[in-house]
Design brief:
single chain, 123 residues, alpha+beta, Zincin-like, 3 strands, 45% helix
Amino acid sequence: MVDMTQEAFDEAVAEALDLIPVELTEQMDNVVVLVEDEPTAEQLEGSEDEDLLGIYEGTPLTERDSWWAAGSLPDRITIFRGPTLRLCESAEEVVEEVAITVVHEVAHHFGIDDARLHDLGWS
């Protein structure tokens, strides 16, 4: 397990978001990125992974229609600090894993599924 402050982990998430091309971040719509210590039981329910590093909760851009935005809460991308720190063996590995997780969850916002992300090497 890596010992990393909340601030340093938050910075790793911010840096990962900065890696996403501006052309894509400008197209992200009604989505927030959060950092939480651990996933909730409800978030783990839908996951095949007991060490869930991140989750996208919302309606992908590819599935939205003209009625979607009226009163919709923002989609949520949540990155989980505890599972990430337990998985990694160094601060550098945490930064790398956070970047992979952020890109993976942002891709879900754009409608890319796990199978395609796996094919692309982002799983």
